[in-house]
Design brief:
The structure is a homodimer. Chain A has helices spanning about 10-25, 30-40, 45, 55-65, 80-95, 100-105, 110-125, 135-150, 170-175, 180-205. By secondary structure, the first copy, chain A, is an all-alpha fold. In chain A, helix 7 (about 110-125) crosses helix 8.
């Protein structure tokens, strides 16, 4: 009887360990050999569960997207839904900043992500955005969220003129009011600006009285 | 006589090789030992020119920022200056995407960057932005530019529903109109939205008729 000495290998366990590896060592450290080593198995054993590195990247994406608020995309005013989604998107990336470039530059195939984008597309089209602009609109939100996540995990003193303060007096003065929660305030300011700018753009894009094109 | 078999070691040569290393192998690969190996010298020789890894990161920042349009921050309408700066910022990061997280999460000390931020601060304060908001305003632009740079270097097909198209019909339809220059169009759409949103915010922030606080 007794419990097994080691928990059984599964896709879930492989993906969780892959995310932990990227969190700790960076995305360039992700290899089948290194992942197998951390799981205490032979690399060949991994192939009983996944087809290869590409599928593992999609598994990492699945875990990160699982931390985002997708349910909010189900309805309500589109600006508010997008704002809540963007906050959860930024927070998830800030917990896993080493995944930012990897996920942003790998083709998306995981069903959970596709479901998230399906919901965003429906939300935006129902709000009157033309079909040929919705991908751009949600990508803009994502790009801002990704960049802001990196800012959130940056040191609290991000710009340090130190002994050069005399040559950059206006910058030095502006930095004096820097607050520990600067990154979050900055994200909110940018999100407000971005969404109010998108509201203006949508109004200009949609033909008056013509309703949303389908 | 004859020329030396190997060009002399210099800070410029060290920084250029460090950027090439990060471009090729990722930021986690940046170590004094590896850099020395690429330059064909002992690691100890590097310390005759730089104090350590931190200074090399600032050297990489100097090279990337050198590719940005800082001169445009000297004057003109603030929205247009910021837009031109943002385009050059995004383009520079897109040429060196592996530097994005490294530079966004390391305290900035290089004089060229400080000069760039001094110019942005002056531009924004002269446009009426309150001193305690200027750092947030330019950080918002930077975050969007960094996220957009990663989008620009992403594969042209970024979302691929493939055989799952039936379960995400609206997304599949929206993606059909995807164009090869989507990322650039998306960046311009976001930049337009962001700047027009900032114009609205600035108007609300600045007290009517009171002029910019100093």
């Amino acid at each position: 009887m007794g419990r097994p000495r080691r928990s059984l290998l599964s896709r879930e366990r492989i993906f969780a360990e892959a995310l932990a590896l990227v969190d700790e060592k960076g995305a360039d450290a992700l290899s089948m050999a290194r992942l197998a080593g951390r799981l205490g198995v032979q690399a060949a054993s991994l192939y009983n569960h996944v087809t290869g590195r590409d599928e593992i990247v999609e598994g990492i994406r699945w875990l990160v997207v699982s931390e985002m608020d997708i349910a909010v995309l189900g309805g309500g005013p589109w600006q508010e839904s997008l704002a809540t989604w963007a906050r959860s998107y930024m927070a998830a990336l800030a917990r896993h900043p080493n995944t930012a470039k990897l996920l942003a530059t790998t083709t998306i195939r995981t069903p959970l992500s596709l479901e998230m984008y399906e919901r965003v597309v429906i939300l935006l089209e129902d709000a009157g955005w033309p079909r040929d602009q919705v991908v751009s609109v949600f990508t803009v939100i994502e790009s801002f969220a990704i960049g802001s996540a990196l800012d959130l995990v940056a040191p609290s003193i991000m710009i340090d003129p130190a002994e050069q303060s005399n040559s950059v007096p206006r910058l030095a003065a502006a930095l004096k009011g820097d607050r520990p929660d600067r990154a979050k305030e900055t994200f909110e300011l940018g999100l407000t600006a971005l969404l109010s700018g998108l509201v203006v753009l949508r109004r200009e894009t949609v033909h008056d009285g013509a309703g949303p094109p389908r």
